[in-house]
Amino acid sequence: KTLPNGNKVLKMSLATSSSYKDRDGNWVRDTTWHNIVMWNKLAEAANNTIKKGSRVSLIGKLTNRQYTDKDGNKHYITEVIANSYEIVATETAKAV
Length: 96
What we know:
Layout: E1 9-21, E2 27-39, H1 40-49, E3 55-68, E4 74-89
Parallel strand pairs: 2-4
Antiparallel strand pairs: 1-2, 3-4
């Protein structure tokens, strides 16, 4: 997306997962979703290379912000402002 001031921004969700065995010995997969924001050249590159299901490693800064919606409700958001990324694999892996 190109903003009126000419800056480019890409917002996407990224899942991180871990697996562990519960008390009964069954595998449990725990997934957490993260809001990712990329700007300008990084946003353009990511838009052209990252596809749904890609395994991505990224470096960025964790930030918190708030906004007020049109009804006057405050919302709080945690985002990762990405500085760089690397595609590790393009296919989704099966859970073990």
